[in-house]
């Protein structure tokens, strides 16, 4: 990749808790294959690149639009559901 290039990644992410472990099991049975990674493992896919803000985060929190993002009607951030936490996203740039 030439300097200044950007690389975006979205990936199934391990939540390391009973709720997400069960969701992973269900999806694994449904798809028959796949690989879940921790945020650190996902970040390692971008090794040698500059990971841009906000970093590796659940996809709904990656540069969210405050009109459609994970906020309640009062405009306060709400807790993400199990399924919303299963995919992480991040953007990196080659310097």
What does this structure look like?
With 95 residues, the protein is α+β, with helices and mostly antiparallel strands. The protein has 2 helices and 4 strands, in the order βααβββ. It has helices at 18-31, 39-44; strands spanning 6-12, 50-51, 57-58, 87-93. Strands 1, 2, 3 and 4 form a 4-stranded antiparallel sheet that branches. It is globular.
Summary keywords:
4 strands, globular, single chain, 19% strand, 2 helices, 4-stranded antiparallel β-sheet, alpha+beta, 95 residues
In short:
With 95 residues, the protein is α+β, with helices and mostly antiparallel strands. It has two helices and four strands.
How is the secondary structure organized here?
Elements lengths: L5 E7 L5 H14 L7 H6 L5 E2 L5 E2 L28 E7 L2
Antiparallel strand pairs: 1-4, 2-4, 3-4
- Give the ordered list of helices and strands: EHHEEE
Overall 3D shape: globular
Q: Main beta sheet: strand number and arrangement?
A: 4 strands, antiparallel
Q: Which strand-content bin applies to the residues?
A: 15-25%
DSSP E strands, number:
4
Alpha carbon gyration radius: 15 Å
Helix content: 10-25%
Residue stretches low in confidence (pLDDT < 50, at least 5 long) are none
Number of helical runs?
Answer: 2
């Amino acid at each position: 990749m030439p300097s200044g290039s950007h690389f975006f990644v979205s990936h199934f992410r391990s939540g390391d808790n009973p709720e997400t472990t069960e969701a992973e099991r269900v999806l694994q049975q449904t798809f028959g294959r796949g690989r879940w990674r921790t945020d650190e493992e996902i970040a390692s896919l971008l090794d040698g690149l500059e990971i841009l803000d906000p970093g590796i985060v659940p996809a709904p929190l990656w540069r969210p639009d405050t009109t459609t993002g994970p906020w309640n009607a009062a405009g306060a951030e709400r807790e993400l559901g199990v399924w919303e936490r299963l995919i992480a996203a991040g953007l990196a740039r080659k310097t």
